[in-house]
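User: Run a structure prediction on this.
Assistant: Running it now.
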Amino acid sequence: MRNFIAGILTTAGIAGLIGASVWIAVLPRLDWGADQKPPPIETVLAHNLIGRWVRRNARTGTNPFLPTSENLRAARPEYQEHCAACHALDGSGQNQFEADFYPPIARLTGAVQKLSDAEIYFIVVKGIRDTAMPAFGQHHSDDDIWRCVLWVRHLAHPTPEERAAIEREVRETTASHERTMEKRGARLEKLQ
């Protein structure tokens, strides 16, 4: 029995030393930058863990706002003000910051549409740590968040008029951003 316990303690000690060595010597050498795609194992583990966390903790229920034209008109500005900078006006995930994010910003017209309303609501309220998805629950009303969920759902099926308006806004926003960057570049050149 003593040999068995000694074997277990020795194995645990060796495992601890290996773990500490990896923690101290190997992990800091990996590229943790947001400009690099993470290894597949990290992506799989993170998606699995976050998915299980959302499913376990999201309340059940449906959006109290029906997709009426009035509710959609009220939902669009909420989305534009709080979500579009990262997820884009059309939900494509093409952020306005011209920056790389890993994990990438969610494309709201893609796999997100498979989530329930309650799961999307939960993600908006709680955010997701280490992904750049902030938590909005402390600073926004339930109604505002449900309106954003309504617009996220609607992004997958906009009317032709809405699609044209969104595309026009994207062009205008892009042009405005480019003008701003040109002015900033000109100012920097003068300072040099």
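The chain has two domains: 1-30, 39-157.
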